[in-house]
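Standup, Tuesday
Yesterday: got the pipeline producing structure tokens again.
Today: sanity-check two examples.
Blockers: none.

Example 1:
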Amino acid sequence: MFTSSLSPSVSVVEAVKILAHRDQYDTCHITIPGEPDRLPAVGLNGQFYSFFRSSGDLTTTLKLVMKLTQRGDAVVLTQTKIGHVIWLIEPEAQLSAPRPGKAARNVTPSFGPADCWILSDSQKGYQPCTLKVPDLPETVPGLAMGQKLFSLYRRDRDGLNALKLAGRLTQRGDEVVILLTQEAYVLCVRELTATLAA
């Protein structure tokens, strides 16, 4: 635990964009240099993300997302009727031309939700702390990631509930951390005006 300063050496983990509803994004096909085939993709914030993997098991999905974000990949996570789909950013992608006989397709510009970080309690990248939040009378438990402070929002044993709640929070503009522990999924929300408690 620390009280006065944040470690500048905290490792950087890429954020995830959680798209909980189908109307939050458009699907399309893209081409990337060196790849002869068109790839299925989603467009978000002026970038394209290619299909990486789908999974019906949430634990497997979240572990894979953590591995990808730790190595620096920007990830979009979408929900389907049978599970979740992981999409990876393709910085050099171009919208694919339509196949012969098909109408050209426009991708409506869509702007994603706030960032979400998915971390394990055993990985580096955050520090537990105690926060003073101006609109709360008592100090609250939280965590620090770099210079960002997050207060404990909720613990949930159900991962799907935690992910849905994180999706709602990020959709309304709150940055969120989901911390995976042995006991629960811990959701923390960024506190812009918080300070470290002495």
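Example 2:
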Amino acid sequence: MNFWKKFEEGIEHILRLDEPPHKVALAIAIGIFVAFTPFLGVHLIIASCIAWAFRVRIRIAAIATLACNPWTMPFIYGGSLILGNYLVGDGSSLKIHNIIDLVNHLGGAFLSLDLSTFKSFFSALLTAAKPFALGALILGSFASLISYLIAFFAFKHFKIEKDNP
């Protein structure tokens, strides 16, 4: 079974749920927002906890985090850095050489296990953290709002058609 067939079946399953459109759309928006955070490897856990707190479908929120994947990651994280640099604007803008330094310091820190190398890594990381966090917060909020609106109206429309054959 190919990817698109599985994807279509997943959408049909979500559409058949007996949930109000608001809850489905909120679960999707939570997953999209979490996908924009820099916490790679724990997106599913974070989305599941937030979905549980909001009492929406955990599975839908977890699936929506898959919006951050190897094909979209450069755009999501690159856009977050660019927007964050633009908004911070205090002369601490992140340049490509800062990112290269960060990667080099990370590799060096793990290879040498030297305390000064770890300090260099965290110094380079802090240079990137402020603009990245700000950009990710804004882009994630915007993307989750748009995804909520699209999902809400799409599911509301589907429910109306389903109830009135």
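Quick observation on example 2: The radius of gyration is 20 Å. The helical segments are 3-16, 21-35, 43-54, 58-64, 73-88, 96-112, 115-163.
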